[in-house]
Each structure stands twice: as structure tokens, then as C-alpha cells.
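Worked problem 6 (solution included).
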Amino acid sequence: MGRKLQNSELNRLSIEEFKLSAKLPITVILDNVRSQHNIGAAFRTCDAFRIESIFLCGISSTPPNAEIHKSALGAEDSVEWKYFADTVDAVTFLKQKEYKIISIEQTDNSIMLNNFLPDKNSKYALVFGNEVRGVLQSVVDASDLCLEIPQNGTKHSLNVSVSVGIILWEFYRNLNFNLE
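Solution. The predicted structure is:
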């Protein structure tokens, strides 16, 4: 089974090294995410998979924030972020930079995550929605496509921070395991 590693044995990057390192060409957009714990968890997951940036939109809180810090554990200092009052403005900004916009949402024509393979030559903006209402329809309409995480239980959705983890892992796994 092995011995549990100490943090000092994990060879993690410093914040300065992280900021200078290569990143996956992905921006996470949080569309009106109300829970500061979910926002912090998104920062921490983006740090873990070396994601380019997070755009916080609408009612989403921004750092510095003690509640975000509780779950981000400092990742709000390593991952670049921007705030947009309107999520559609964030989408428009990234479309102008040739990002493919993907809303993580259940729609009548969404693609199941297990049936999607990201293009290694593309940049992606992944939109995650509000804990109750999901991604705004206007943002879905502005997206290039929608991805859905297959689910078979009684609930209709996953917690947004769990969805961020699942989606980013799949992109990380399919785009590049090793960002040396």
C-alpha cells in the first residue's frame, strides 16, 4: 500500500513558478455561482490541473475573500482571474480570442462528456452555472456547444464544484498529462 507522502515530498510549484509555468489553454467561467466555497473549490481545482484562468461573473464573489480562501487554500493567489458583471461579456471577450465556448449544461442537444474529445489545438472556455438555475440561457445560446456529465441517479445535477473537477480532469487527461 505504501507510505503516505508528506507535503514536502510532493515537489509542488511555488506560486511564482506556477505563474511562469505552461498552462492548459482553458479558462473556467463561473456564471453567477453564489457559494464562496464552490468558488474556492474551483480555484483549487484549476490550480491542481494548471488551468490558465478563471472568470468570475455576475453574483460570483471575488478574492480576497475569507470564505473563498477556506476552500481555495491559497489557489486564489496562483490562478489568474478576472471579474465580469455580465457572463455574456466574458464569453464575447473569449470568443474574440478564438476560444471555443462550452457550457456545462443539460440541453436538448448537449453532448455527453464521455462522447467528447477535446482538440489539442484549441483553446476552451468552460462555463459552469449557478447552483440552482444552472448556466443562463443567454450564455447557452452564445456557446459553441454544451457538454453534459452522464448521471443515472435520482438527482438532476451535481454540485458545481464536483462538476468542475470532473470536467477539468477529463480535459486535463485528454489534452496533456504532463505540463513540464
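Discussion: The radius of gyration is 16 Å.
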